């Protein structure tokens, strides 16, 4: 596994899952997406969650980020004192599509989460500009989303996630709609930015070439988790 520059994990658990299961639906229609998964995410970890379609990557990522609740078992966030989503700016989320607001320019899109978290306007704009610099797209600040390529739009989505300086970055197939060159660039950006921020990074991907850029790799198979590297 590649160890790109940055801070190494310290042995402090950021997220702990104990015998976590997640079932969707009920009765005969019940679908067990996760079977008694136990794992620990350490501060500063950079973990790829791999596995085929339907193996449970998104379900696991959502539980770790606090977006979903288990149907059995326990998820704990010792460093956050409860669900991190209750603390605005602590979790940066990136999804397959950039989902930028079409009427706002790039700078406004990146500043928006900070404004929604009641940060002062000046601070939100300053942080948004810094995140665009970090993502190496400062020159796009005044563009509208419709004026961006797919790769540029996804870098804006990454900048939006980075702007509040989150402690946990959760990215779900963030490169699924990009060609290999742009996909690798976005993954490398996430890895570098996580190192610079001292943030923990979890990245769900079905692509082993993306997973190789991170330090640890968890492989999902039919709702169970195996660590394939450490
Ligand atoms: N809301 C839901 N209702 C019913 N079943 C669901 C729901 N969400 C996920 N599932 C099922 O749970 C299983 C795991 O889904 P999940 O999205 O976590 O897999 P994944 O590995 O992320 O897949 P992909 O790579 O295709 O995104 C799948 O069988 C899926 O159909």
Automatic annotation (TrEMBL):
Domain ABC transporter: 15-230
Cross-referenced Pfam families: ABC_tran
Keyword Endoplasmic reticulum: no
Name under which the protein is recorded: ABC transporter ATP-binding protein
Record-linked InterPro entries: AAA+_ATPase (IPR003593), ABC_transporter-like_ATP-bd (IPR003439), ABC_transporter-like_CS (IPR017871), ABC_transpr_LolD-like (IPR015854), MacB-like_ATP-bd (IPR017911), P-loop_NTPase (IPR027417)
PANTHER family (alphabetical): ABC TRANSPORTER RELATED, IMPORT ATP-BINDING PROTEIN
Keyword terms of this UniProt record: ATP-binding, Nucleotide-binding, Transport
Keyword RNA-binding: no
Recorded GO MF terms: ATP binding
Superkingdom: Bacteria
């Amino acid at each position: 596994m590649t160890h790109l520059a940055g801070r190494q994990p310290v042995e402090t658990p950021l997220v702990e899952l104990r015998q976590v299961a997640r079932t969707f639906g009920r009765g005969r229609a019940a679908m067990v997406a996760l079977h008694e998964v136990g794992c620990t995410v350490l501060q500063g970890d950079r973990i790829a969650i791999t596995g085929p379609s339907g193996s449970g990557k998104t379900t696991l990522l959502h539980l770790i980020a606090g977006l979903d609740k288990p149907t059995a078992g326990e998820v704990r966030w010792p460093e956050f004192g409860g669900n991190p989503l209750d603390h605005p700016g602590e979790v940066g989320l990136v999804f397959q599509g950039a989902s930028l607001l079409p009427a706002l320019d790039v700078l406004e899109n990146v500043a928006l989460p900070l404004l929604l978290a009641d940060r002062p306007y000046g601070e939100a704009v300053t942080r948004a500009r810094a995140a665009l610099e970090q993502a190496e797209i400062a020159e796009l600040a005044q563009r509208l989303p419709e004026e961006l390529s797919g790769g540029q739009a996804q870098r804006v989505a990454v900048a939006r996630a980075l702007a509040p300086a989150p402690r946990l970055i959760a990215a779900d197939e963030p490169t699924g709609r990009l060609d290999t060159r742009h996909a690798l660039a976005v993954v490398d950006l996430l890895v570098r930015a996580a190192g610079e921020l001292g943030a923990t990074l979890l990245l769900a991907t079905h692509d082993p070439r993306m997973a190789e850029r991170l330090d640890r790799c968890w492989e999902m198979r039919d709702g169970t988790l195996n660590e394939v590297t450490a």
